[in-house]
Amino acid sequence: MSKLTLERGVSIRQRWGRAAVQVGGLQWSIDGRPLALILQEARSSLPKEGRHLTADLYYSVLQRSNDDYGDAGRDALRFLLGEDEWEEFPGRVPLLIGQCLHVECAVTSAIIERHDGAVTWSQFQAHQPGPEVEGFPFPSAITYTFDREQHDSVLREAQAQI
User: Which top-level group of life is the source organism from (predicted)?
Assistant: First the structure.
């Protein structure tokens, strides 16, 4: 099983060797690798429109609580914990957003399946808002299964921070 962690304020330059851009909020990491980096590396498999859409989708929806973006992060945590569902894309959870820091601009989401002892993140997809707009699926090999107790513990800690 994979291990989910959240890191605060990951610097893109530090992690990815790019120009200095400080990414605020909490950042998803899976087995010690930022999810945003994993998906940025996989975006080459997307069609041109999908690569363009995903070019800056590396900001977590879990932003600082003292700004205007806390609601989207709190919603995403509830969706991940199975306490609520995203009305626009039932069954999916928004995970990464672009520089506008709003889910309404563009988002990378995943299907979340909760079982007795495990939680699976799969079928990652980049899309613009609106269920009528076709999204761009990432390779199906990008699937992660977490121990449910470890997964939910990380999310509960995050809820206390945003």
Answer: Bacteria
What distance in Å separates the CA atoms of residue 85 and residue 82, rounded to the nearest whole number?
Answer: 7
Q: In whole angstroms, what separates CA 40 from the centre of its chain?
A: 12
* Full-model pTM: 0.86
Interval 16-56: pLDDT, tens: 555 445 556 788 999 999 999 999 999 999 999 999 999 88
Domain boundaries, the chain: 4-161
100-119 pLDDT, tens digit per residue, is 878 888 999 999 999 999 99
Residue 67, amino acid? D
Structure tokens at 111: 């299907």
Q: Give every CB contact of residue 46 below 8 A, 6+ residues apart in sequence.
A: 54, 126, 136, 138
